[in-house]
Design goal:
Number of helices: 5
Strand order of the largest sheet: 11-10-12-13-9-19-18-15-16
CATH class of one domain: Alpha Beta
Radius of gyration: 20 Å
CATH architecture of one domain: 3-Layer(aba) Sandwich
Structural class: alpha+beta
CATH topology of one domain: Rossmann fold
Distance between the termini: 19 Å
Strand content: 25-35%
Order of helices and strands: EEEEEEEEEHEHEHEHEHEEEEEE
Length: 293
């Protein structure tokens, strides 16, 4: 269970940006007299990096060497060479898989993404076993909201093992509904990402996860449950039902009407977690949870 910016190599968590034994990837060893600088073996650290304990680090942003070698930030946040307090982040769970969507539904995911500051907002996406139609629908939803709100975003993709490493350079982590993933794969993701996701959220990151009907698993929400970030006992199909926006002042509900119709593969969650933003008469469909350190 590796933390943000780390990569798992032979059951150990390493920093491929500055580890001379795993420079840029597992088991890439730098030669005698070389250092690992920004993921490449070199005779000296790149400009802007300092050598601390045999590793090239950025004193302006490295929470283990903040402002000076050995300057440790207990919050895990170093900004402009000074330790900052952890502010907490946002966890948004949406019971739509976006294979089919309308303008109002699109606002939910877009608003969730743009809870993060930044210009552009850096969005990391785990595609995994999500269907192409869901991936396209989620991207379209974010694009629509970006245009409406005058915001911009960039998209990058991570494989299962890359997520902890690449979260270091992301503002938002998006997990589209994993319709074709077996339960074991969702459990594995939660186990591998748990530590990094909690650190990411506690440092102010945003996680947006979507769910929907699946013939092979009990719900994508299981990733967050195994990671210890969200507790539920299941999902129930509410396709084509009229849904109420009950937290009209919540940031996820910005621009939403009082009611809209959920498309096919919409689900409600069997949970008492967080602030309910959208609900079916029998339970929550969209949930927004603040994660405070």
């Amino acid at each position: 269970m590796c933390d943000i910016g780390e990569l798992c190599c032979s059951l150990s968590c390493v920093r491929p940006d500055n580890d001379p034994a795993h420079c840029g990837g597992c088991d890439v060893v730098c030669g005698a007299g070389e250092v690992c600088s920004a993921g490449s073996c070199a005779p000296a650290c790149d400009p802007g990096l300092s050598l601390c304990a045999g590793r090239c680090v950025d004193l302006t942003s490295d929470p283990s060497h903040c402002g000076r070698c050995g300057g440790f930030c207990t919050s895990g946040i170093c900004v402009d060479s000074s330790c900052e307090s952890a502010t907490g982040g946002h966890l948004v769970v949406v019971g739509h898989d976006y294979r089919n969507a309308r303008r109002d539904m699109n606002r939910l995911v877009g608003n969730g993404v743009f809870l993060a500051p930044g210009a552009p907002v850096r969005v990391l996406v785990y595609e995994g076993d999500s269907r192409a139609s869901s991936l396209t629908g989620v991207d379209r939803a974010i694009d629509q909201t970006a245009v409406a709100r005058g915001r911009t975003w960039t998209r990058s993709v991570a494989s299962l093992g890359e997520v902890p490493l690449l979260l270091a350079d992301a503002d938002v982590f998006v997990v589209p509904s994993q319709q074709d993933a077996p339960d074991a794969a969702l459990v594995k993701a939660g186990e591998q990402w748990g530590r990094a996701l909690r650190s990411f959220l506690e440092r102010g990151g945003v996680v947006v996860l979507m769910d929907g009907g699946s013939m092979v698993n009990a719900g994508t929400w299981q990733i967050l449950d195994v990671a210890g970030l969200f507790s539920a006992s299941g999902i129930v199909d509410v396709s084509l039902a009229n849904l109420s926006v009950v937290a009209r002042t919540d940031g996820v509900a910005l621009g939403m009407p009082a009611m809209y119709r959920g498309e096919r593969s919409s689900v409600r969650f069997l949970t008492t977690e967080g602030t309910v933003v959208v609900e079916h008469p029998e339970g929550p469909v969209v949930i927004h949870r603040l994660v405070i350190p």
